[in-house]
Amino acid sequence: MPTSTYKKIWLKSMRAKLGKSIYFGKPGVNLLVYMFPMILLASLGSIYLHLKKQTRVNQFNRVDMKKIEKFGALKRPMLVKGLGIVTVTEVMFLMMFMALLLWSLANYFYHTFVTITPQSLPTDGDNLWQARLDSIAVRLGLTGNICLGFLFYPVPRGSSLLAAVGLTSESSTKYHIWLGNLVMTLFTSHGLCYCIYWISTNQVSQMLEWDRTGISHLAGEIALVAGLLMWATTFPAIRRRFFEVFFYTHYLYMVFMLFFVFHVGISYALISFPGFYIFIVDRFLRFLQSRNNVKLVSARVLPSETVELNFSKNPMLMYCPTSILFVNIPSISKLQWHPFTITSSSKLEPKKLSVMIKSQGKWSTKLYHMLACSNQIEHLAVSVEGPYGPASTDYLGHDSLVMVSGGSGITPFISIIRDLIYVNSTNAYKIPKITLICAFKTSSDLSMLNLILPNSTEISSFVDIQIKAFVTREKVSTCNMNIIKTLSFKPYVSDQPISPILGPNSWLWLATILSSSFMIFIIIIAIISRYHIYPIDQSSKKYTSAYTSLIYLLAISISVVATSTVAMLCNKKNYCKGKYQNVDALSPLMIESTPDQLLPEFTNIHYGERPNLNKLLVGLKGSSVGVLVCGPRKMREEVAKICSFGSAANLQFESISFSW
Q1: Domain assignments of the chain as residue spans, ordered by start
Q2: How far apart are CA 154 and CA 336, in angstroms?
Q3: Which of 38, 308, 418, 498 would be a feasible disulfide site paired with 274, CB 3.0-4.6 Å?
Q4: Distance (Å) of CA 606 to CA 65, 155, 451, 458, 473
Q5: Closest Cα to residue 584, out of 495, 474, 517?
Q6: Which PANTHER family match (predicted)?
Q7: pLDDT tens digits, residue range 66-89?
Q8: What are the residue ranges of helices labelled H in 201-252?
Q9: Number of neighbours of residue 559 by Cβ within 10 angstroms
Q10: pLDDT of 163-208, one tens digit each?
């Protein structure tokens, strides 16, 4: 975009061919150049994931060791503090993106200072610095729009673009944070420059201008205020202490995007719309799934102020270890949705899905007291969104796995261990040796280890696992870990097993929704432009820019809502008819062991000390040792430093950080 080649040759050529179309007009160029390629890529990514999933039916992902050795260095941590844990690959892409922004700004500013000179200014016009400030303000907005174009790609939880390149929404949250800071820095600078310009030129009234066919200043100011409110609540001191304020303030994104479109007009807004379009599809699918209550079958209350919820699951719902489920319990809060790691394995327990919830905030504490203090609860209404997680995993590609956890950070590793148990029970592959290093504050937290192994001596005997547990605040055990309260619920007839909103072929259906909704959107716009907007534009009275923007936004909404609803109803009809109706019977593997039955032969418990991670990790044998960590930030940073670029070549690092 910043190049002269684009502006003077390509853009002119495209506008000559497409910009005068009676069906799309000026927005047609950006629809073709920016919207169409990304929707096509997202659709092709969904098809790729569907085909990849089909080839792995009844198979397991055995990654070639040479591939791990070849690309393992690119996944190593290069930065540990400041921006968080950042790998070599992420640093490379970050540098390229910053180079793009700096090049764009340099190109724009060069154009400003070359073209705006004392000789080029009218005698009765602005001063030189004012004219250049006006131009610089525009250029800052243009560069901010580049960042805005990428802002929404990390946000969709079921994005095919992220999954196709091995990312998840959770692991991409930091990209959204980086981009958000860049967007607001550039847009705030854009707004401040214009405020200074208007004040210095005695044009303060321009702040309230809403142009019918051009740039609307008032709309831009409303968008900027909404953005600043969101930005203010993202700072750690506010976000951690007042998370609900941060969470609900972020719904101002609707105000921000609406008035941003009014500010610049739909034609220019389409440059940054592809990611937002994909996000809208994902958000509406989540809305459809969240409308139903699911079958909560049982719950277990552990002495560590932890609750395990067990749901009935449709057998066709498959997910990878470390996946996340968003849970809403209306009796606690109708508005709050909280993400929890799934501890069950969809292969080992095809009719059950479990999550573990540690009492750490107001919501989880209310749930714990509700279940711990009452034996009379026969039914608990629950709605869910998800599961969301990686499309595939490569844990089988390592000689051994070392999992480092702190507190409730053990939960994703429970699902990994259970998945590997199932793989080994099929005799398909030999699973890697597993070492679990877990740190807990008190001995009561050791009860979380109850959830690791199913109650089957035959299956547990296949596990080559060693557990090293550290209790940091107690010298001896002060809690009976076997005091576990179990509650059984009676689901209503209307409650449904947790099922994929788009059925077993969800990626294929997502490709259908993306492609068909975009086609319907194009058809609606073509018809309205041809028979409504174009005739008015040809008259002396130009069509209002805000009305055109509203028409485009309504067309997008109608197409997404229609196609998503039809896809959901088709799949709901299929899995409710008969093929997957009887899913209430629970697998015999649903009842877990207690430590005195299975864990002593695998577990070493150390009281009154913290794990020496450097000693435990450095010197591990094997050509490829997968090191996974989930826990407090300092623990993740310590493990990342040990596995960082230039350290032991055989340590392959992966951080699991749930920072929604």
Answers
A1: 22-57+72-117+125-288+504-534+546-574, 292-500+612-655
A2: 22
A3: 38
A4: 35, 41, 20, 28, 11
A5: 495
A6: FERRIC REDUCTION OXIDASE 3, MITOCHONDRIAL-RELATED, NADPH OXIDASE
A7: 555 556 677 788 888 878 888 888
A8: 217-232, 236-241, 243-249
A9: 24
A10: 998 888 888 999 999 999 999 999 999 999 999 999 998 888 889 9
